[in-house]
Write a structure and sequence with these properties.
219 residues; alpha/beta; Beta-carbonic Anhydrase, Chain A; five-stranded mixed sheet; 10 helices; 5 strands; binds zinc ion
Length: 219
């Protein structure tokens, strides 16, 4: 059996299994979705959003791109966030990176090619911003992990400063979380960014960055 054929067979088994648990599962889901959370994560195949947090179809609204970035002009990501907030009324946005991220690695080693090299440039800008601290870490694997955390802090900051989040805070509750997933043990690390409004943004952001520097002894 070809792999593609096998995927369709797997799909039939999966749908059957869910229907066995709840006969109306798909008919209920087809009428409406009520996810409580928006997940902005890396496109990496080892980080399946729903699975690692034990949520079912319909429970997590998802956007993924290389190195889980929130870029001020990325209409794709920002439209997802705006729709999630305004229409789906999600109250929690989780930006989740992962240790050993290929996008971060390519940025630090300057190995990205083609169109993706432009995207990765944003990560290189962050590395440049924190260059004096990053220089203190000589082990490349560890440096990539430091950058994975710094990147999350920066992306949380980017989203919090964007008009999509700023508008949301004028009318509803919204918390932006920053997490990093460890592909080596399957566990999530909460960086405790937890931005709940603009007034705490700058202070929280600096505190999270300081905490990362302390943790890796590069302050
Ligand atoms: Zn990645």
């Amino acid at each position: 059996m070809t792999i593609i054929k096998e995927m369709f067979e797997n799909n039939k088994k999966w749908a059957k299994k869910l229907k066995r648990k709840d006969t109306d599962f798909f008919s209920k889901l087809s009428k409406q979705q009520h996810p409580q959370y928006l997940w902005i994560g890396c496109a990496d195949s080892r980080v399946p959003a729903n699975e690692i947090v034990g949520l079912m179809p319909g429970e997590l609204f998802v956007h993924r791109n290389i190195a889980n970035m929130v870029i001020h002009t990325d209409l794709n990501c920002l439209s997802v966030a705006q729709y999630a907030i305004d229409v789906l009324k999600v109250r929690h946005i989780i930006i989740c990176g992962h240790y050993g991220c290929g996008g971060i690695s390519a940025a630090l080693k300057d190995t990205a090619t083609g169109l993706s090299a432009n995207w990765i440039r944003h990560i290189q800008d962050i590395a440049e911003k924190y260059k004096p601290n990053l220089k203190k870490e000589t082990d490349i694997k560890q440096k990539i992990n430091v950058m994975c955390e710094l990147n999350i802090a920066e992306q949380v900051y980017n989203l919090a400063r964007n008009s999509v989040a700023q508008d949301a805070w004028e009318k509803q509750k919204l918390t932006i979380h920053g997490w990093v997933y460890d592909i080596e043990d399957g566990l999530l690390n909460d960086l405790y960014c937890n931005i709940t409004d603009t007034s705490i943004l700058e202070e929280k952001h600096s505190a999270v960055i300081e905490k990362i520097f302390k943790k890796y002894n590069i302050d």
